[in-house]
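Hi V.,

Quick status before I head out on leave. The structure for the redesign project is tokenized and pasted below; the design run finished overnight.
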């Protein structure tokens, strides 16, 4: 799954020449034959753009060669998602399969073109799912588009795994369930340090939930994301009370996750994350509207002002009209600031990157948030708006 670190890598790259190729990919049947044809066409367009920059033919061929090799790679095209992004530079090739269809596009410039990736990185659209049963624990990285298994260090695989943990001291007089290498199955359930078997069982669940919560909280310490916990009411209740994870928990789904396949799990979690995402967008737009309404200087609709503020790291919230940025078009009023870009959704961008793309790159690289919203949610006639830090 395409992640924020992946995006950061692209944003922070400083190649002499960058080539960005995007294509919507077919995943089944004969339609997959269209994929290599599409890539071949994009490579031709990129070669023409590079030649127009006076790059020698041999240099163009060497730069594009890693992607050109994919054209005849039959197996590669049989394992695709809805979109594919390919980035070429003197450092080699980077490829990302995408869970969304992207516009067919070839872009050359001094930086990678990231606009088609922005829907995958909107704030609060990326989240973590923690599924818990006594028999299995799993963390997932999720977006509105799907889930991917996440490897979290020290996350206990199950409640039984606690018995084999060197940090866990099993009760000396417990039933064989707590001490798997001692006693037989017929050994009676005895009291443990004065606790009843039921109290002991609950204690193990509490410890299990605490360790799972602490492991996930530690993993997310440097890059916090909202967490959705999927568990039955009892285990979920113990996680709810865990002090380490509680600040990150955005919601709970009270169901045994063992009864759900991956698609059903994503659907169940989306009922929690969908409203959170919508509210986050609404709150951000409401703040923008309030600042604009009172003429506050920290709110701007001027593309030139926004671009300059982004260069200076002053953009805290950037709002882009989804319909515009994803097709490479900008506010006509700012056309003099850049080379003209085509307005058709399937057009190929020539020359320098669109200034909206650059503003998004700079905003993200400086820790700001980028929101893609419908054109009708921005003031009429604008393709971008920003809330500035100062």
């Amino acid at each position: 799954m395409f992640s924020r670190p992946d995006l950061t890598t692209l944003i922070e790259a400083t190649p002499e020449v960058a080539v960005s190729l995007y294509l919507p990919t077919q995943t089944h049947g004969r339609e997959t034959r269209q994929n290599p044809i599409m890539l071949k066409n994009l490579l031709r367009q990129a070669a023409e753009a590079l030649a127009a920059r006076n790059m020698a033919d041999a240099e163009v061929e060497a730069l594009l060669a890693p992607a050109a090799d994919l054209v005849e790679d039959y197996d590669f095209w049989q394992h695709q998602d809805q979109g594919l992004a390919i980035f070429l530079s003197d450092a080699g090739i980077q490829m990302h399969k995408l869970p969304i269809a992207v516009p067919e596009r070839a872009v050359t410039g001094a930086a990678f073109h990231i606009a088609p990736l922005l829907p995958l990185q909107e704030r609060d659209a990326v989240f973590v799912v923690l599924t818990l049963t006594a028999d299995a624990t799993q963390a997932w990285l999720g977006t509105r588009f799907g889930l991917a298994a996440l490897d979290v260090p020290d996350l206990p695989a199950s409640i039984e795994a606690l018995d084999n943990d060197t940090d866990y001291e099993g009760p000396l007089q417990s039933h064989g369930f707590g001490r798997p290498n001692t006693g037989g199955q017929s050994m009676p359930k005895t009291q443990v340090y004065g606790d009843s078997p039921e109290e002991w069982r609950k204690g193990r669940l509490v410890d299990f939930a605490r360790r799972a919560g602490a492991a996930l909280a530690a993993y997310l310490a440097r890059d916090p994301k909202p967490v959705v916990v999927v568990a039955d009411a009892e285990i979920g209740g113990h996680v709810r009370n865990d002090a380490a994870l509680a600040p990150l928990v955005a919601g709970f789904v009270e169901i045994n996750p063992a009864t759900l396949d991956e698609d059903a799990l994503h659907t169940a979690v989306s009922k929690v994350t969908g409203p959170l995402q919508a509210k986050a967008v609404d709150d951000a737009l409401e703040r923008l509207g309030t600042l604009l309404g009172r003429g506050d200087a920290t709110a701007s609709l001027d593309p030139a002002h926004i671009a300059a503020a982004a260069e200076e790291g002053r953009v805290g919230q950037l709002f882009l009209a989804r319909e515009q940025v994803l097709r490479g078009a900008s506010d006509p009023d700012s056309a003099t600031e850049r080379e003209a870009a085509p307005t058709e959704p399937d057009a190929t961008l020539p020359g320098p990157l669109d200034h909206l793309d650059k503003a998004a790159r700079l905003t993200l690289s400086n820790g700001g948030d980028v929101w893609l919203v419908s054109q009708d949610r921005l003031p009429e006639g604008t393709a971008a708006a920003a809330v500035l830090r100062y």
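Above is the designed sequence. The domain at 297-388 is CATH 3.30.1330.30 (60s Ribosomal Protein L30; Chain: A;).

G. will cover questions while I'm gone.

Best,
W.
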